[in-house]
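Structure in, sequence out. Go:
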């Protein structure tokens, strides 16, 4: 079982790192003009999880809150949000 965060409504994608670990994109349908966007990458590990058990997950990055200290996109902010 994969537990979604309260703000997350879907798994956007999942890719294997190895036989037991996976990177999951958890998201919702929010956009900059509709709702509150939620997009995060999590690392999950199935090692030792019993059949029907719940995987543990570790937040890797919040794609809606990326540090941009040099304001690379020139929007006047030091935080970048990954648009659709």
């Amino acid at each position: 079982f994969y537990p979604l965060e309260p703000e997350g409504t879907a798994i956007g994608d999942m890719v294997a790192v190895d036989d037991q670990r996976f990177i999951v994109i958890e998201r919702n349908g929010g956009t900059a003009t509709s709702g509150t966007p939620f997009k995060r990458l999590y690392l999950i590990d199935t090692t030792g999880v019993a059949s029907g058990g719940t995987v543990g997950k570790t937040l890797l990055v919040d794609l809606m809150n990326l540090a941009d200290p040099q304001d690379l996109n020139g929007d006047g902010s030091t935080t970048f949000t990954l648009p659709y």
